[in-house]
Amino acid sequence: MRADALNGQLDSLILATIAEHPVHGYAVLQRLRQRSGGAFDLAEGTIYPALHRLERDGLLSSAWLIEAGRRRRVYSLTRAGRSALGARRRDWAQFARAVEAVLG
Amino acid sequence: MTWLHELADELAARGITGRERRRILLELRDHIDCEPGCEARLGDPGALAAGFADELATDCARRCAFDVFGALALAAVALLVSQLAIGRAGGYPGFSHGLSLALFVPAALGMFIAPQVALVAGTLAALRAARRRRARTLPAAELALIRRRAWVGLGAGIATVAGLELYVADFSSVLPGWWLALVGGLAAVAGAALLVASVRLARAGAIVTRTGGCAGDVFDDLPAIRWSWLRAHPWRLGIIASLIVAVAMTLLGWHAEHSLIEGVERGVLEGLAAATGFALLGTAIGVFTADPNTRRLTLLRRSARSPTSPERHDKTR
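YS: structure for the whole thing
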């Protein structure tokens, strides 16, 4: 699936990926790949502007951590991020039902 | 040159520097360390830097518009308090009672003319930022318009607080100490806030974005105004706004001076000043659109958005 097909959904996918526990950028991509069965084939760099934007919007928070001698930025969901994810899941379920009803 | 070096150069070329640039580079370095040789999948460094710059420029311009509006609100408080309290302080002393005309003239210009410019430009900047708060990226022209409005508002706000401080200095031997301390203190606080906002605005302007699209004009900020006689001739809006300023300042002057005639004198003066301000700065702050092509494009875009427009009906069929 190309990146433009993900247009508008990338933020929701990132929020869902980070919801379980805090992760760094590369791990977000790995999880997206695993969960989608490799269907999401986006330029990997595009994840970082999205992470920064979600943090500026107050949906994510981040901090530098040292892991295995490496300095890496780890992202976690804020309270606002959790409620935004809940709202996006409801919207998506409604949208998917409607599309399915039409497509059959 | 490595992929990371290219990204570093592209970020710098787009005005992303300092802590933000270091953070991006460290995150991408960590990504590459996790899977050496993945640079090709990260995408073109120029496109990635442009992605960061477009979003960052939009976010910074919006935040700066609100910062400037907040700082201008402090300047407005200082000005209002000075005018509402002057009655208790014995009214405005005649200009001949001051220390020097060289202090009085810039003080009067700053206190009575600059606030109108600050109010209009600052409000328009914040209004556009608020109306476009959900947009991930905005056209470069629209960002430039928001920043221009904010700069005009800031400049006028600084002129206002400088005018207040000069007035305090000019009449320091005539007006009571409590009034001088109150107004001088409030103006100093507002001045500090305006300076902080100007530093942030300068940083926001350094980010280079090339997103296409037009900036629109004042009717994009005031969609409730539907009268075509006004939309087709934005200069009429300038005249109406100047009349409102004249009436408001007449009432304020009447209250401050306890004299209707002095209030009318001030109202007329300020109304004329507002009209002059619109004529001089109207294009810069997007009240009027200088370029006829941009104007036509804006009108077309607006008509396409209108719920009654034929284009829209066609699209939804």
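YS: worth flagging: The mean pLDDT of chain A is 88.
IM: good catch. Also Helices of chain A lie at 10-19, 25-36, 47-56, 79-103.
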